[in-house]
Design a protein that fits this description.
This protein is of the alpha+beta class and about 150 residues long. It has 3 helices and 7 strands; from the N terminus they run βααββββββα. A 7-stranded antiparallel sheet has the order 1-7-6-5-4-3-2, with helices on one face. It is globular, with a radius of gyration of 15 Å.
């Protein structure tokens, strides 16, 4: 499986969902679920995960010792409709591509995440695990949006 795709409908405007996904990611990003959602290696601990919200902005994680890991960078920036960014596990030779679309119909936004490029890294078998991860990540984002929809 060289790519995975998952979608989730969230009862909120696409502007709110896009802002949550990009601007509030550190508030809702799961650090642990079925998998570990951090690049921190012992003894380091995850501190923050964030986007620089602009074209060519970094997507990176910082750790409690002040070090950083650059996961990727934003390669498409079209708020609040779409963004795409690169993603690289430090064990892989190449970045993969994550494309996220936000489509709103009747105050419900469907977020679709398409993650491609596992095959070029010689790890097509990890796609299934990344699909499970996408469901957990989208669910965490949705829970955050729904619990914060009256504020801000």
């Amino acid at each position: 499986m060289s790519h995975v795709q998952e979608s989730l409908a969230i009862e909120a405007s696409k502007e709110k969902v896009f802002d949550a996904y990009v601007g509030q990611i550190n508030q809702w990003w799961p650090r642990l679920g079925t998998y570990r959602y951090s690049f921190a290696q012992e003894p380091r601990r995850p501190q923050t995960i964030q986007f620089e919200p602009r074209l060519n902005g970094r997507f990176y994680e910082t750790f409690d010792d002040g070090s950083e890991y650059e996961i990727g960078w934003i390669i498409e920036w079209n708020p609040p409709d779409q963004l795409a960014y690169t993603w690289r596990d430090p064990r892989w030779p190449f970045h993969t591509t994550v494309t996220v679309t936000f489509i709103e119909i009747d105050d419900v936004t469907t977020v679709t995440v398409h993650h491609a490029g596992f095959g070029k890294n010689g790890v097509p078998e990890v796609g299934e695990g990344y699909g499970t991860g996408l469901i957990e990540i989208l669910s965490a984002c949705a829970q955050w949006v729904l619990s914060n929809r009256k504020s801000g």
